[in-house]
Amino acid sequence: MPVYFDDAFVPLSQARVHPLDRGFIYGDGVYEVIPAYGGHYLRLDAHIARLERSLAEARIANPYPAQRWAEILTELLSRHGGGDASIYLQVTRGVAPRDHAFPDCPPTVFAMPRALKPVPTNQVERGLKAVSLADIRWQWCQIKSISLQGAAMLRQQAIDAGADEAILHRGRWVTEGAAANVFVVIDGAVVTPPPSNWLLHGITRDLVLELAAQVDLRVDERPLRLKELLAADEIWLSSSTKEVLAVTQLDGAPVGDGQPGPVWRRVWDAYQAFKADLRAQ
Ligand code: PDD
């Protein structure tokens, strides 16, 4: 499998990370997951722009201008071959003797394609189970940081409780999922928390909001209370790999009638049409 590592396209087996890489020692890096359908990226520019923001906020040197990132990622996708794919891209602060303060060294870049499996039909048709959990992560969740220990612990806590995903809250305010953005439907309107340092500004989130508006739904980006989540008619989660999925059980109780809701269905249909258009390009 071809990957991009340190300025070159090489087979994965030839990519070698130094043990003193700050990504390995400190979890000091940022990443992106970028889906592609039929050889066409979904919103590549938005992913590159978010990568640039993450790098700037983490004060990691950005090795390439946006145009060069696009060239590298496009080349990697074409080397991967056809079909749906997702690219995992990671930039760490680089290799340096262990010391917390920032070193003066070039960043390490790694990008890897893999086949993007269709979202399982049972998840689409039956929806997901979620549990609400206190958001124990750090306070800079707008950075797509590779330090994912908190998120991994929360996801595992959800799985241990028999659920698929955790929906997180800070006190009475809902933030997001362990690895997804969250939406609710209240009186027919789609509500999701606004971008802030408490959540990742998802690329799929923005697409879902656009598609919701296109199918004539009311969209409300505003802080969301935990008690509104618990009483919502519908709950959805979005991410580059989940697309947009309904949550049909929260904390062991059915959401609405326990089936994926009619409002979700309209947006999911629009999402499938959007993917079909991308593939046909
Ligand atoms: N995660 N919030 C968090 C904490 C996430 O980790 C993700 C995505 C999202 C959704 O962002 P987007 O729509 O841009 O994928 C929101 C990726 C898929 C991952 O870590 O694998």
From TrEMBL:
Keywords: Aminotransferase, Folate biosynthesis, Pyridoxal phosphate, Transferase. GO terms for molecular function: 4-amino-4-deoxychorismate lyase activity; transaminase activity. It is an enzyme of class 4 (lyase). It comes from the Bacteria. InterPro entries: Aminotrans_IV, Aminotrans_IV_CS, Aminotransferase-like, BCAT-like_C, BCAT-like_N, Class-IV_PLP-Dep_Aminotrnsfr. The keyword Signal does not apply. GO terms for cellular component: cytosol. The keyword Protein biosynthesis does not apply. PANTHER family: AMINO-ACID AMINOTRANSFERASE, D-ALANINE AMINOTRANSFERASE. This is Aminodeoxychorismate lyase. It comes from Immundisolibacter cernigliae. The lineage of its organism: Bacteria, Pseudomonadati, Pseudomonadota, Gammaproteobacteria, Immundisolibacterales.
